Amino acid sequence: MMACLVPPPPAIADGFSPSPLKLVQQNRLVSAFQSPKSLSELRALHGRMITTGLRRNDLVLGKFIICCSSSNCMEYARKVFDEMSSPSVFFWNAMIKGYQQNGDHMEVLRLYFQMRSCGFDSDAFTFPVVLRSCSPLKRIREGKGIHGLVLKTGYATNVIVQTALMDLYSLSGCVASARQVFDEMRERDVICWNTMIAGYSRCGDFANAEELFHKMPEKDESSWNTLIDMYCKAGDVEAARRLFDEMPKKDIISWNAMISGYVHIGDMEVARLLFDEMPRRSVVSWNVVITCCVHHRRFTDALDLFRKMQRSDVRPNEVTMVAVLPACAHLGAMDLGQWIHAYIDKNRIRMDVYVTTALIDMYGKCGNVEEARRVFEMAKEKDAFSYSTMIEVLALNGKAEEAFQIFSYMQSHGLKPNGVTFVGLLTACSHAGLVEKGRMYFNMMKSEYNLEPKSEHFGCMVDLLGRAGYLDEAFELIKSMPMEPHVVVWGALLNACRIHGNVKLAETVGFRLIELNPTNCGNYVLLANIYAKANRWDDSVRVRKMMKDRGVVKKPGCSSIEVNNSVHEFIAGDNSHTHCARIYRTLQEVTERLKREGYVPEVSSALHDVDTNEKMQALSYHSEKLAVAFGLLSTTPGTPIRIVKNLRVCEDCHVMMKMISQHYDRNIILRDCNRYHHFNNGSCSCSDYW
Description:
By secondary structure, the protein is mainly alpha-helical.
């Protein structure tokens, strides 16, 4: 869509031709305003305007206000504007445009109505800007009023104004009004056609959008891209691909739209093939593919793509950071996450609330609570989601009281919590066994903040009550849920049955879970293990046979560790690693040393009907033990070891990690599917409550 440009101010200031000296000073100042400045630089330039006597020079003042706008310093521009005794329409337009460019649409409307009340007439530069600020504010009534003024003042035939009106109506869902403006236009350029097609596309009227597309006398890349994007978002990738293949000249937006279309339907292979075929890639192209890798849990692919992007001629931006940091978080790749943090600082990538929150999440999920807190405290921008992420980080790392303090700060400063906030608080209560506090927060959602508890909040409460032994109350809570209980809620209760050995309830819950999600291996395994722990071996075998007959394959335990910016993955009994022999030798040496220090394998963790020696053998090569052995032989003494496991850590590995932390003087941070375990000097942050 064509940008609405502010008209240039008059070249002659104050009605007189400037002297040669003044002209030189004027030109130097105008030249200095060509690029964005910091606030301190703007103040210095304003000082020069005053000392050179050019503070009332229209050209200099106009360029200064435009420079403030491009520098995101509208407050300073406003101070200068308010000091003007009688600003012309140009300056009103410049200020209105500045607020719009900086996303302050409410101030656009305030200033527009102030301009009208001061007796200034709007013109062809005013109307499009104000109309485009009505849309995000959903101020269709004000927009219609401006439309009436457009008709009265004779601007109804101005193409840019008409296009802005079409945009307003279509964005507000009044596509018939937009079409009326379109039909009344005497002259139409390609932007008008594209705007109308986009309007139909937005409201799902594909037939009219396609009809207009084929009627267009001339099409540009944007015309094709609008229709391709429409079909992609509707899931009709075949229709989008036909248009894409017919397109005479493809630009980066075309490729990105088509890649996004395949991502939307989950066809990562074709999306990646298209990406590899692109003749030229923009930062958006890289961001789309990295984001979709993370979305499809292909975290290693996301990191590989990011490294390739580093070697390309495209510089990452804040969207890239938000896309790639979750991959670091999931894999526990804190070294790479720290490198990205340093890259953000070095390249002055804007630390907006999204980047800040992604960094907090990354450090927290890598077990580095101190760094997560430092990023949080230094953040210039914080919203409810930032606070909620910090609460969740503290909760998962066993720092319940600190999570509660963050929430108290939110309350005292009038920040309204959201559903994510309460998930964090309830998780903190669950991991610390604080039943009464959890009940209080759960009730507070509705009573104080009018937030209806969702399935995830019920899941947290069931987990809290179940872990603490209130199994009947947890079961009754599930039965009272206003929505159909999600598998996660039932799973929390089944895990509580495992902890407290309640086989009878476990049978009810376990078979309900298998009925709801018959392809999930974890439900079968957990129920079979509960039977095994109760020495009901026949029932355990029956459940495992049911699992086998249905073709459900048990998910292997997998642990990952980052060493020298590379993520190494291990599964139980893994022989594929390059340093396999050294890893097993190190693990054997560690086990023998710990046995001398009193380590006795927790054979109850091996839930198979075999003799003790076989159980001990099965426990010996769990994936987290292989990972910690690799960490011990690959890192210098005293270096923290960070491990991520996809399943719950077993009792035997938990005991062993505590002893390694004591006898090898290592901090071990192990993240399993339930929580974070910080092993230090023979103890764990979970206090053996997990």
